[in-house]
Amino acid sequence: MWLFEVQGKNTKGGDPKTRDAWMPEDVADDIHKYSRERGLDASTPWVDASKSSVRRWVKEAADKVAERKDAPRWREVSSHDLRRSWATYHLVERQVDVRTMMSVGGWSDYSAIEPYLAEPTETRIGEAMRV
């Protein structure tokens, strides 16, 4: 795994917050190759785009999926939905512990990540408590 910095929204207001984020080694290899090919140094952003551009890209991609799959609900997907989906997948499906996800995802307190946690079912409680 590789550590890199991401500029993102400061949920407490004010200037954007720089967060540490992690990426798998194969993704890091692709990023390093991309950087070498374009002569980017460590301080140069990989993607130099405004928030509105990123939101537009997500919207365009979601619209294409909606058309291809004939699933109009995809038209409602936002960049925030991608972050929420990523967190929910790791917390619920992969059962990554909350503190790790807070660190990796840049959440500063439990109340910010708590909505992404699944309600425990009797089956999950039984499995967790099995000795």
Automatic annotation (TrEMBL):
<dbReference type="GO" id="GO:0006310">
    <property type="term" value="P:DNA recombination"/>
</dbReference>
<dbReference type="GO" id="GO:0003677">
    <property type="term" value="F:DNA binding"/>
</dbReference>
<keyword id="KW-0233">DNA recombination</keyword>
<dbReference type="InterPro" id="IPR002104">
    <property type="entry name" value="Integrase_catalytic"/>
</dbReference>
<dbReference type="Pfam" id="PF00589">
    <property type="entry name" value="Phage_integrase"/>
</dbReference>
<dbReference type="GO" id="GO:0015074">
    <property type="term" value="P:DNA integration"/>
</dbReference>
<dbReference type="InterPro" id="IPR011010">
    <property type="entry name" value="DNA_brk_join_enz"/>
</dbReference>
<feature type="domain" description="Tyr recombinase">
    <location>
        <begin position="1"/>
        <end position="130"/>
    </location>
</feature>
<protein>
    <submittedName>
        <fullName>Bacterio-opsin activator-like protein</fullName>
    </submittedName>
</protein>
<dbReference type="InterPro" id="IPR013762">
    <property type="entry name" value="Integrase-like_cat_sf"/>
</dbReference>
